[in-house]
Specification:
The complex is a heterodimer of chains A (about 575) and B (about 850). Chain A is an alpha/beta fold and about 575 residues long. Chain A has 27 helices and 13 strands. Chain A has five domains: about 100 residues, Sec1/Munc18 (SM) protein, domain 1 (Rossmann fold, 3-Layer(aba) Sandwich); about 190 residues, Rossmann fold (3-Layer(aba) Sandwich); about 110 residues, Syntaxin Binding Protein 1, Chain A, domain 2; about 80 residues, Serine Threonine Protein Phosphatase 5, Tetratricopeptide repeat; about 30 residues, no CATH class. In chain A, the strands form three sheets. Chain A has a seven-stranded mixed β-sheet with strand order 4-5-13-12-7-6-11, sandwiched between helices. A three-stranded parallel β-sheet of chain A has the order 1-2-3, with helices on one face. In chain A, strands 8-9-10 form a three-stranded antiparallel β-sheet. The two termini of chain A are about 25 Å apart. About 5% of the residues of chain A have low confidence. Chain B has about 850 residues and is an alpha+beta fold. In chain B, a hairpin with a 3-residue loop joins strand 1 and strand 2. In chain B, helix 5 runs parallel beside helix 7. The longest helix of chain B has 23 residues. Chain B is elongated and about 140 Å long. The chains are: A alpha/beta (about 575), B alpha+beta (about 850). At the A-B interface, helix 3, helix 4, helix 6, helix 7 and helix 15 of A face helix 17, helix 19, helix 21, helix 23 and helix 24 of B.
Chain lengths: ~575, ~850
């Protein structure tokens, strides 16, 4: 499902005399229509496609009208390309400032999966403006945010740009009562670990297995137990899903069977009904029951399918290795597991993910492993991944352990000294040097690996670690928890230093005084570069525990596979 | 106060007209008004005089002088007229002076005599010369209508958006019309002209003869015509001294009057008040002024001097050499209050207040009288309204005082009308002051709006007053003070005798961080005046760096623009500057600039990656970025190149680059890839099948699957494939082939580096339990249980687990126990467990 489907599906478009929909691609349009409308992200590649198409039409001597609608905004570079390709005069351009898609009651997505690669790999800051615009839109709707926190360079830039927008249009939001008490900005690169872990909460697992796109999933024949695939919207309106989405997978089956029994019992009630009761039952309850029945069988099907897939690849082993990496023991064993994984060509993306997880948790690979794993990988999956490795290194996802601490220490010191703008320059200059993740130290400081006495009861979670079977509290979520508890970064200096990101906090007392206590419980979390369903589940849990309500704004919902794909070089 | 109505003149039964002095003029005219072309803008606007016009047969060598005065006679500008002969002068709605020359050129000057622009009224006009011209105002703006020497009309309804329209010809017109005027009806401009006894109406398409209804017969010529301020009424003056007054549509007659003066009047203008039923016109001859309306008698005034009439919305201004007066119909409220022996509530209230001040009990009597009639509210309103129409502050005050007094006795009188009137009057009195010289009446002020009034003050460079008014009226800063300060600053930058530093500092001191002020606009103005340095200084104060960029680019300060664009965080803006720079600088300089701006550099790289690959290479070369250069060639090796030689060459270049980058790993890997590529090529030539672009692993697998075991082993040796990988690879490939014999042989070739559990797994994947069992027996003890379970031998697995006394293994087996078949085994395990616990 694409964002457009969520707003105007095919039938609505057809009602408005859209003849046919195509994906913008590098091939001629087969349509015989007199006019073509392109709804595109402002990317040079898309411009090239359009130019090829228009020029092909010109060669064929046909005249059409072309309209290019850029969403969320038009970029000068795109117009430049249209001009260079000689079709600027042939097309008319427009903008559709569409930046926020509500996927669920508590989840807003900008549907910009490219944000991650653009910013964290290519250093392209184009979307920051879009983020600022989106926040500006939110603050015009819900009033100012009295408390702002953030960590990361992108977070800081987004925040500053957004503040500037607010100041320019002062007065509009000034007098309004704040409806959302806190806003929290997070850069994805501050916590790669969480995003790289296998997800075991139902919603995350569905995303990992079937890929949720725009809040909807395509269940194949193996799930629907028919010969057709089915598109299913996954959100709070699906009552069955809503109850299991945040559950650890091991509970889901039990829950579903209990649910099935209840449903059966409700069906069974009709026995021994008189005519009138039966009429009532048919007219009022049956439809709901049937709907529930349908959903239930779908989710049971999905569970089965997940189980089948996961057991095949020895999911238990995988999870065990991941936990070992997180806790930092049996590194050698884990390394050989990864090696075997690569040797067996299990999956290029999975292998890469494990390598990255190893690198980040260990502050980079030791030189021998770094070389041998890469060699193995290239042998298994092809030489073009040499570029993938160069990307991963630049993003700090897969690095070699630095011979000493000296360089990184200098880097962190320098970036502390100079302003953020200059820091960009310096970071760029240092980009060839390994970035250190300091995961182990952070983990210790923030107590991310809970000490478990006996079995961790996943049915009754104690803390956010339940989203990773009780083995690990997501770093991003822990930071949010800590900052909200203190209402500042105070006492977290050491963590911030280890994270090597700049942090900020800003509280406007005048606004806070105006905020109702209810709105102060409402927290908007902005993930720059994407967030995972596990993080969402963890924060939902935190919300229930502490009486907060979280709303998520993410550039896109992501998972480990998406992150790795964004970093991968593939042959065209 | 008794003689307050002394200057009131009744016209008919119901209306009074009064004339009062606005200013005594001390403009020290050298010439008589009649010798000048005169133009006075409505709404108390400026007066322009062009002395020594050409129609007087004076020596053409003497250059005429164009003078501009405020309505109070303060000189604003004076300049020597150096262009051609002028036929007509007029003010536009924006208070720009339009000078229509004989050749049809219209020169536009500002209030201070600054030349703005010029435009032409077309070729036809140029050829036939201008005979007469009118500047008129409509809702669209100010228009110019021209009568040419060929007796044709050309007009433009809006000089701001010049569209010339030539009007159709009047049939049989041999001489110039005796009089003509523009009419504006239904958003269309017409021309009404009189030729002898006939009237013609010209519109876009046609010329039609019209007859005013109820016109007395015997008219042989019309001498003068006048249209009211709002284009609603028309008056015609005939050669018999007869005046017809009616609607401008010529459909209805309002009244007529015979003044018995046959001499053509110098001027005739309407004098009426909006929303008043009274219609009157003012006719001026050399020494006589007559107010004529729907009454048998007229009001007559003697003119001591040459005078000039300016029609206004609610009256007529009359200025001469020494005075400037206003003639209007006395408004109803004033009439009610001041009429002799008036018993109107307002009049009584005014009286009551006066008595109250005298501490007389009569105050109470008057007040009681009003209250008994229940008219106190009305009385207060009347006093407030009347105050607005009074010119003298004293009188305004006493009326307002009366209103205020009356208000005390009212319970719930909303105060805003009173407060607003006080504010309005303060503003009006301020601008009416002769130093300012804008004699607006209350109705005109309301029609004009405060915004326009502020604009006009700004236009007159009366910045302090404008700001005071804004502050006094508490206008929002963006509309009020900031806007005016911005105008001031724009004016300030034009003062060429002040140094850049001083101007910039002065502007910044005044403006500070006032919201809504755009420093970039001011800088743009400075740049427009040729003061680039000043513009740059001013831009420094602009808080939004994005705003600075376009101007900096225009001023060719592209590098500065680049850093400002980067500061703004707007990538699109950065890109705009980049492409600008790219065209402006030579390649080397451009790259050097980029080098210092990493954000711009990465942006440009992105662009190049898609659009200009060669440039990207140059960029890396320039930076000695060998790592990226290597990556670039790697990408080229599979994306750009097709032939194998080209690909190998690209890889070779990449290798060199990697060596330079001291990335030996990448260099080695690339060398390997070159070798592999060549080899794959050879394989393709020698064997069937596709090898190119496979990974090393896949190449070996393909070879095994194709039965080329020897070659596969050779390849594995050449590329030093580790044993573990080779074993996995072979195992999988042979199982895929279902070559169980070969697999068994392979398994026995030496001790497996990956153990034998994988053999079991892979066999089971191929559903070959028989083969799997073979290997299960060879699995080492640590994986034995798992292997046995895989082949489905639960019972044996249980035995092994019990032997191992391993709790985890036990539960694993237990979880595999299903149904009745394994019941015994399950029991066994439970027992073993119990035993273990006992111990």
């Amino acid at each position: 499902m694409s964002p457009l489907d969520r707003i105007a599906n095919v039938s609505i478009l057809k009602q408005h005399e859209v003849d046919k929909l195509y994906k913008v691609d590098n091939k001629p349009a087969l349509s015989s229509n007199e006019q073509l409308c392109f709804l595109v992200r402002p990317r040079i590649k898309n411009m090239r496609y359009i130019a090829n198409l228009v020029n092909a039409d010109k060669v064929a001597g046909r005249t059409r009208r072309y309209k290019v609608i850029f969403s969320p905004q038009k970029f000068y570079a795109c117009e430049m390309v249209l001009e260079e390709e000689g079709i600027f005069g042939d097309v008319s351009c427009d903008e559709w400032a569409f930046s926020l898609l509500p996927l669920d009651v508590d989840l807003l997505s900008m549907e910009l999966p490219e944000f991650f690669r653009d910013y964290f790999l290519e250093g392209d800051q184009r979307w920051i403006n879009t983020v600022a615009q989106a926040l500006h839109l939110l603050s015009t709707l819900y009033g100012p945010f009295p408390n702002c926190y953030g960590i990361g360079r992108c977070a800081k830039m987004s925040y500053e740009l957004w503040r500037r927008l607010e100041e320019e249009e002062d007065g509009e939001t000034k007098g309004r009562r704040p409806e959302i008490g806190h806003i929290f900005f997070l850069d994805r690169d501050m916590d790669f670990v969480t995003a790289l872990c296998s997800q075991v909460v139902y919603e995350g697992l569905v995303d990992d297995t079937f890929r949720i796109k725009c809040g909807s999933v395509d269940f194949g024949p193996e799930v629907t137990s028919s010969d057709k695939s089915l598109k299913v919207l996954l959100n709070a309106e699906d009552k069955v899903f809503n109850e299991i989405r945040n559950e650890h997978f091991s509970n889901v089956f039990g829950f579903l069977s209990q649910k099935a029994r209840n449903l059966q019992a409700q069906y069974d009630r009709r026995r021994g009904m008189d005519i009138k009761q039966m009429k009532n039952f048919v007219s009022q309850e049956l439809k709901g029951l049937k709907q529930e029945h349908r959903l239930l069988s779908l989710h049971i099907g999905a569970c089965e399918s997940i189980m089948k897939k996961k057991t095949k690849q020895d999911f238990q082993e995988l999870i065990k290795t991941e936990h070992a990496l997180l806790e930092g023991f049996n590194i050698r064993e884990s390394t050989s597991y990864i090696e075997e994984h690569i040797d067996r060509q299990v999956s290029p993306i999975e292998s890469l993910r494990l390598m990255c997880l190893l690198s980040i948790t260990e502050n980079g690979l030791i030189s021998k492993d770094y070389r041998s794993l890469k060699t193995q990988y290239l042998q298994s999956y092809g030489p073009e991944h040499l570029l993938t490795f160069s990307n991963l290194r630049r993003a700090g996802l897969l690095t070699e352990q630095a011979p000493g601490d000296t360089l990184t220490a200098v880097e962190s010191k320098v970036s502390k000294l100079v302003t953020d703008k200059a820091a960009g320059k310096i970071t760029d200059a240092f980009s060839s040097l390994a970035k250190r993740s300091n995961f182990r130290a952070i983990s210790k400081k923030l107590n991310l690996i809970p000490r478990v006495d006996g079995e961790y009861d996943l049915k009754v979670p104690r803390d956010m670690a339940y989203v990773f079977s009780g083995a690990y509290v997501p770093l991003s979520c822990r930071i949010i928890e800590q900052v909200l508890e203190r209402r500042s970064w105070q006492g977290l200096d050491e963590v911030v230093r280890l994270l090597n990101c700049s942090e900020f906090a800003f509280t406007d007392m005048t606004k806070e005084d105006k905020a109702s206590s209810e709105s102060l419980r409402l927290i908007l979390v902005v993930f720059l570069g994407g967030c995972t369903f596990s993080e969402i589940s963890a924060l939902r849990f935190l919300g229930r525990e502490k009486g907060y309500r979280f709303i998520f704004l993410t550039t896109a919902v992501t998972n480990s596979a998406r992150l790795m794909e964004a970093m991968s070089e593939v042959k065209a | 106060m008794d003689c307050y109505t002394a200057n009131w003149n009744p016209l008919g039964d119901s209306a009074f007209y009064r004339k009062y002095e606005l200013y005594s003029m001390d403009w020290d005219l050298k010439e008589e008004l009649r010798d000048c072309l005169v133009a006075a803008a409505p709404y108390g606007g400026p007066i322009a005089l062009l002395r020594n016009p050409w129609r007087k047969e004076k020596a053409a060598s003497v250059r005429p002088v164009l003078d501009i005065y405020s309505a109070s006679g303060i000189p604003l500008a004076s300049l020597l007229w150096k262009s051609g002969p002028v036929v007509s002068l007029g003010w536009s709605a924006e208070e720009e002076l339009l000078c229509v020359q004989e050749d049809g050129a219209v020169l536009v000057y500002g209030l201070h005599g600054d030349f703005r622009r010029h435009f032409s009224m077309g070729n036809e006009v140029l050829q036939n010369r201008v005979l007469d011209a009118r500047i008129f105002h409509t809702e669209f703006g100010s228009g110019v209508a021209i009568l040419t020497g060929a007796h044709r009309f050309t007009l433009s309804a809006n000089v701001g958006d010049l569209k010339l329209r030539r009007m159709p010809e009047v049939p049989g017109l041999q001489s110039a019309p005796s009089c003509w005027t523009t009419l504006c009806q239904d958003r269309v401009t017409h021309i009404l002209l009189a030729v002898g006894p006939d009237l013609y109406l010209l519109d876009h398409a046609a010329c039609s003869a019209v007859t005013p209804p109820g016109l007395v017969p015997g008219v042989s010529s019309f001498l003068q015509m006048a249209v009211s301020f709002t284009y609603r009424h028309l008056a015609l003056f005939t050669d018999t001294g007869y005046i017809w007054m009616g609607t401008a549509s010529l459909k209805e007659k309002l009244c007529e009057f015979n003044c018995n003066i046959r001499a053509p009047p110098k001027q005739m203008v309407w004098c009426s008040r909006p929303r008043s039923k009274e219609r009157a016109i003012v006719v001026a001859w050399e020494r006589r002024l007559m107010v004529v309306g729907d009454a048998p008698e007229s009001i007559q005034f003697v003119l001591d001097e040459d005078s000039y009439l300016v029609p206004e919305l609610d009256g007529v201004r009359i200025f001469s050499r020494s005075t400037h007066e206003f003639l209007h119909e006395v408004p109803v409220a004033s009439e009610e209050i001041f009429k002799i022996a008036s018993m109107a509530p307002g009049a009584l209230l005014l009286e009551a207040q006066k008595e109250y001040e005298k501490e007389s009990q009569k105050a109470d009597e008057y007040l009681r009288e009003i209250q008994e009639l229940g008219q106190l509210t009305q009385a207060v309103q009347q006093c407030i309204e009347a105050a607005g129409h009074e010119h003298q502050p004293d009188m305004q005050k006493s009326l307002l005082r009366a209103a205020s007094f009356g208000k005390c006795f009212l319970d719930r009188f909303p105060p805003d009308s009173f407060v607003r009137m006080c504010q309005d009057l303060r503003v009006l009195n301020a601008v009416r002051d002769y130093h300012i010289g804008i004699p607006l009446t209350y109705s005109q002020y309301k029609q004009l709006t405060i915004q326009v009034l502020l604009d006009r003050l700004v236009l007159r460079r009366l910045y302090p007053l404008a700001i005071q008014i804004c502050e006094y009226l508490r206008l929002p800063e963006v509309q009020g003070v900031s806007r005016i300060l911005a105008h001031w600053a724009c004016y300030k930058v034009q003062q060429k005798d002040v140094s850049d530093e001083d101007v910039a500092r002065a502007i910044n001191q005044k403006l500070g961080d006032t919201p809504g002020v755009s420093y970039s606009d001011i800088a743009a103005r400075a740049y427009g005046c040729g003061r680039t340095e000043l513009a740059i200084k001013l831009l420094e104060y602009e808080p939004r760096s994005g705003e600075q960029v376009p101007l900096l680019l225009k001023m060719k300060r592209s590098k500065l623009a680049l850093s400002k664009a980067i500061e703004s965080g707007d990538t699109d803006l950065v890109f705009t500057v980049l492409l600008h720079l790219k065209n402006e600088l030579n390649r080397g300089d451009f790259f050097m600039t980029l080098r210092n701006q990493p954000m711009a550099l990465s942006l440009y790289r992105q662009f190049c990656k898609h659009q200009e690959l060669e440039t990207l290479k140059d960029l890396y070369n320039q930076d000695d970025n060998h790592q990226e250069l290597g990556s670039f060639h790697i990408r080229a090796s599979y994306a750009a190149e097709e032939r194998i030689e080209g690909r190998v060459a690209a890889l070779q270049t990449a290798t060199d680059a990697f060596y330079k980058a001291k990335n030996e790993f990448a260099a080695k890997a690339t060398e390997d890839q070159m070798r592999l590529l060549r080899l794959q090529r050879r394989l393709e030539d020698e064997l069937e099948g596709q090898f190119l672009d496979l990974s090393l692993h896949d190449t070996v697998t393909t070879l095994i699957l194709g039965g080329h075991n020897k070659r596969a082993e050779q390849l594995a040796r050449d590329f030093r494939i580790p044993d573990k990988r080779l074993w996995w690879l072979k195992l999988t490939a042979l199982a895929d082939l279902e070559d169980w014999e070969e697999l068994e042989k392979f398994s026995k070739s030496k001790k497996s580096p990956i153990g034998y559990l994988p053999f079991v797994e892979i066999c089971m994947k191929q559903h070959n339990k028989y083969e799997a069992k073979k290997y299960a027996s060879r699995v080492g003890p640590e994986h034995k249980v798992k292997a046995l379970l895989l082949v489905g031998d639960v019972a044996q697995a249980a035995d092994v687990a019990i032997e191992h006394r391993n709790e985890a293994e036990l539960s694993l087996v237990l979880s595999h126990c299903t149904g009745a078949t394994d019941g015994a085994t399950a029991d066994k395990i439970q027992r073993a467990r119990a035993q273990a616990q006992k111990k």
